[in-house]
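Hi everyone,

Forwarding the result from last night's run.
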Amino acid sequence: MRNLLFAISCILTTICGTNEIAAQERVYKPFQTTVWVNTLYQNGFTNGEVSSSSISIPRALIILKGDVNQYFSYKVQASLIGTPLVDAFVTLKANKALQFQIGQQHIPFTLENQLWPMIMESVDYTEAVTKLSGIKDISGIGSMGRDVGVSLIGKMISVSWGGVNHDFFSYNVGIYNGEGANSLDKDKKAAYIGRLEFWPLSKLVFSGSYYLGDWKDNYSNTIKRQRYSFGMTFDSESWVIRSEFLKGLTDKVESNGGYVQVGRWLGWKTNNGSSQRIYPFFRYDCFQENLAYDILSEHYCFGVCYEPWNMIKFKLNFIHDRIGGNGATNWLKMMINFSI
């Protein structure tokens, strides 16, 4: 696999060597800092009675990043709650078709896993993505959907549609240690992960991703993890529609699931000239952890995401959960995301 990646990089460099990143008019910012904080209030209702209630700060992040020049950028993201190191990687850029990203980073598996929780429209990730992409994985890995490794990233085949130029094809493939974030490689075996994206329109993408690797748990048991996903996103200036299907093999357990989300941004100008917008949406997601048993988890989410300013979001989600034949639980979740 390492030889294959090296060969691919050589081919891309040869084919796209003339497609250098334009730097003449770009202003580089080598040092940028941001602080993001999430506050969450949630109530759970079962049979009409409150079954749980809590107020928490699930995330508080300090981000340091920068574009040093046209060939080099970096990002370090640390958490003040829970796992201290979230991201730590550098990006080496030959051109837009060939970039190397080295360090702890999001794994290129699924579309939703790439969405930063501070900017996504809903309070939570879907269950299928959470349990099959390493966020709170059914294998036992809880690594925020991240891993340590080296990836090749690029965009190519410029096309024009309706007077708008965009890249038709993009890829992100890499070799990772397979143990998740902030972990050493216990089994000395790599995980191979990749995602391919096809953009027939500048606002529409179809994606496929694949994961193959092993993970050694705390009892030194080697657990095979093989997953794939297919999905699409349509993201215009107003409508945002996203859907994915995932299937996975964890040791000998087969799982599958998916989701579909539909919503539309509505914007307006205030009396002082500032812009505000709101995104009402509906999302359905389901997950079957073990296909050998007829137990399906279903989640119906009705929500709104309100942006009074660029750096603040108010999220309100009403979620109806059904797990097999065990009745239903309703959740009311309110979250505020803001940056300093």
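The two ends are 43 Å apart (CA to CA).

Cheers,
N.
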